[in-house]
Amino acid sequence: MNRILLKKHTLITAAIFVVMPLYSLPLILRAVLCKKEWAFFMFSLFMGLVGILWPPTGDLYRYTDNYYMYKDCNWNNFIDIIQFKFDYVLPFLSYVLARLNLPFDLSRFFFNFLGYYFLSRIMISICKHNPSFNDKKSYLYALIILIPLSFSTYLFRYSFSTILFVYGSYLINYEFRKNGYLFVALACLNHFSYVVFLPLLFATKLNFLRFNKMTIIMMFIVSFMLSGNILVSILDKLPISDQLLFHLMNYFDGYWSQEYLNDHSLKYKIMTFLFSFLTYIYYWGYIATYDKKANRQLLYVNSFILFTLIVAPFSVVYERFLGVSLLIMKVHYLYYYDSANCKMVNFLRLFAFCAMFATLLNWWSVRRELSISEESCLLYSTSVQILFHSYDKNWINDNIMDDGNLVNNN
């Protein structure tokens, strides 16, 4: 009887989703709270639709521009173009969509849907492993911490690669499944910078990374005293091509190392500081509940913390690596969370509060993009209509400048 009711509930939710996806969301979220795997899948589909309706601003403008260029290319021309790039997943997807005469907006659907789907798979796996999340409050906190409610987080190459890499490394280091290497490879092919993380996958074999608490604290202190010149010198001596070296130097010793902050407002700098501050709270919780004898995956997490702190002198690289290590740390914390440990329970609540505050900050940071977006289509459009929604060239020319900023960015 219960199975029949479950099937009816699933079918009703799916039917509403097809007709009016937004109005199926309460039913989907209710099922997510009941740990129904189909609900996680449908929630990921919904976030994919949200991604389609997000306007092509910032880097998305450049991605869209490349898509229109690929429309006029045959296969040989396309290969000639991408041989000078270091990232292949998005260009290939763009080329396929262009040749099939499908809107580029679908790429945002794939990125957002897959980003949320892989996070959901991690959440489901953690719940099966850890009985502490049989408690409804703890489970709700874990959902808030691990799965953000964001309009655009996974639409960009780097953030999507973060999900691919973390999901792949989770399969490798926590579920001991070799197919995780496929997702790690895709992360590298989607954004070349993830190649630097590959050695860290094998950190579980390096016992010297079994730090004590004081060592980690000292690592933080030393990282902010490091000189960027040392790392630049090391990078300059690596056996890599001049083209790749030039590309990397833009982040380590060029515009994106520190200078880019001069082009942003005080509000942006404050927002960046708040995001960093929230991240440090997670690090604090990790150190406060740290047990160096706990498990071999601890070495893996420590390797990412160490690597992130090494690049602390370079703001953009540091922020990006901080985001990767933060997600890895969240997964590890939830995987070994113990509801009988009062300290871990208190930090779980604190982390959930930080995640909610970070979500509000994220929504505030994209308020201008929201003001010109067509996310309101969710109120009255079917799933099929949204799937074929597209921001055409005229809309882009009227609202987006050549650098990806909004026309009226006041």
N-to-C CA distance: 58 Å
Count of DSSP H/I helices: 20
Q: Determine the strand fraction and express it as a percent band.
A: under 5%
Low-pLDDT windows of residues: none
Q: Structural class given helices, strands, pairing?
A: mainly alpha
Report the order of strands and helices. HHHHHHHHHHHHHHHHHHHH
Biggest β-sheet strands, sense, barrel? none
- Helical fraction equals 55-70%
Average pLDDT, rounded to a whole number, is 83
Morphology call: globular
* Rg over alpha carbons: 22 Å
Task: Provide a descriptive summary of the structure in words.
- The chain is globular.
- The chain has helices spanning 2-19, 21-33, 37-52, 59-70, 75-82, 89-99, 105-129, 136-146, 157-173, 180-190, 213-223, 228-236, 242-252, 266-288, 297-310, 315-335, 342-365, 367-372, 383-387, 393-399.
- It is mainly α and 410 residues long.
In short:
It is built from 20 helices and no strands. It has 410 residues and is an all-alpha fold.
Tags for this entry?
410 residues; mainly alpha
Helix-strand layout with pairing:
Elements lengths: L1 H18 L1 H13 L3 H16 L6 H12 L4 H8 L6 H11 L5 H25 L6 H11 L10 H17 L6 H11 L22 H11 L4 H9 L5 H11 L13 H23 L8 H14 L4 H21 L6 H24 L1 H6 L10 H5 L5 H7 L11
Helix pairs in contact: 1-2, 2-3, 3-7, 4-6, 7-9, 8-17, 9-10, 9-16, 14-16, 14-17, 15-16
